[in-house]
Amino acid sequence: MLQEDIFKKLTAHCKEYGFIFQSSEIYDGLSAVYDYGQYGVELKNNIKKYWWDAMVLLNDDIVGLDSAIFMHPDVWKASGHVDAFNDPLIDNRDSKKRYRADVLIEEFLEKLSEKINKEVAKAARRFGEEFDEAMFRKTNARILDLNQRLESVRMRFVEASEKGDLDGIRQLIIDCEIADPVSGSRNWTEVRQFNLMFDTRVGSVSEDANTIYLRPETAQGIFVNFMNVQKSGRMKLPFGIAQIGKAFRNEIVARQFIFRMREFEQMEMQFFIRPGEEKQWYEYWKDKRMKWHKALGFSESKYRFHDHVKLAHYADAATDIEFDFPFGFKEVEGIHSRTDYDLSQHQKFCGKKLQYFDNELNKSYVPYVVETSIGLDRMFLTVLAASWKEEKITKANGQEDERVVLQLPPLLAPVKLAVFPLVKKDGLPEISQKIRDDLRFDFACQYEEKDSIGRRYRRQDAIGTPFCITIDHQTREDETVTIRYRDTMEQERVPVGKLREIISEKVSIKKVLEKLY
Ligand code: ATP
Q1: C-alpha 221 to ligand 1 mean position (Å)
Q2: 486 Cβ closer than 6 Å to some ligand 1 atom
Q3: Does the reported pTM lie above 0.70?
Q4: Is 367 in the same domain as 453?
Q5: Quick check: is 265 in a domain?
Q6: What is the CATH number of the domain that holds 441?
Q7: pLDDT, tens digit (0-9, with 9 covering 90-100), for 148-198
Q8: pLDDT tens digits for 389-424?
Q9: Cα 332 to ligand 1 centroid, rounded to whole Å
Q10: Ligand 1: does its nearest atom lie under 6 Å from the Cβ of 106?
Q11: Is residue 13 within a helix (H) or strand (E), and if so which, with residue range?
């Protein structure tokens, strides 16, 4: 199946099964804003818990915070967002579509690098075992030519971006003959800067009202509370502050479902360190965060690092953890070495000292920061994309069938087990409900008695429930039930008294967290 079709099916699945709805859908929706439905909110909460526990529970030196969305307007002057939180936009005159100019160029670079990889793969097939990839890359005329092109475009792009040279960026689009992906037209307007912050007004009388912003990142709430947390918690460097919360960006091109939204959630952790130790901590958090992703058990080949060529104004090193979405490898999480930029800027703007007295060194300084910043909604999309499968199956009676299954890591599944009476009579519903009532304190359970067992299984497969328990007439005699495993569809007869143990073992967050500790 084409990746594009998979993505379409995945988004339709999210709606059909109550994971994600378009915001204000009955009014035809609001672009790039989404609501999480009954299963979506559970999955989202489970992802949050996995992140929070990995950060706050497992690390003595990381504490949590929940800062407000509204902040003093000067925060965003100090952070650089008022002046520099811009995206360069460009319109196509024929299609009337709007694009991010930098994204058009990045996609062009990505295509060139894919071309190179394809040439290498083709040669590897042709030469078989004798193939020397390094030598081929160094000597093949076509590869050298493509590489030279790629490097020259990249250099021009970095230079124009760093200088804020919008004409230079436009010229690059023209010179690379980049066409509108929809219409194929090359009739481009000028490039303009566009600030991504939403503003609103506080105060009831319009003359007094102040413009304030909806925060475009949660990080600044952490920086402005650095002294509060450090003093009240008597924190010693190095230490971190973790926070989960909403952020808002007026994205120019909001596409790809919940990948790019105007209202979204971030899970950010700022780690405060001694100046000079930034390289070591940057590497440490790169490694830790990649482990967190991989511990979920999806294929390792779905993740890669992508180091930034063009660094943000605050960073001295930055990388993205990218995930192989149905629309290609894209950023899920950023790890940034932010130097002392943020605290120094706030110190300058608020006129108060934001420094730490280091007993060992016997001096005060502004700490450096390494940040890990992951989009909760993007993480949600990675989990769904990696879990969604359409499978051909053979039913018990030998007939061919199909099923859609979400092979969610059990710790993230919205419902951990479903309890079914085989039939709606003979006391089986009562026994089933008793079993459910006994287990509901430990796991998110569902009780279902409508439709055939097969249909009930399909519904639970579609929302990713790892276990289905069926109560039949034999249960009345020997207190055993069948447990059916979502991924293998195998069924096993087990004593009712063993259910808690079997299920705990598989859905436990502890098992996954232990891999990280
Ligand atoms: P992008 O390059 O995709 O715009 P970014 O580099 O601006 O992202 P950061 O500012 O580093 O993103 O934000 C940290 C994380 O927040 C990102 O890795 C991403 O997971 C998430 N994020 C950022 N913008 C959005 C958005 N519009 N919708 C959903 N998640 C987002």
Answers
A1: 17
A2: no
A3: yes
A4: no
A5: yes
A6: 3.40.50.800
A7: 999 999 999 989 988 889 999 999 999 999 999 888 999 999 999 999 999
A8: 999 988 778 888 899 999 999 999 999 999 999 999
A9: 7
A10: no
A11: helix 3-16
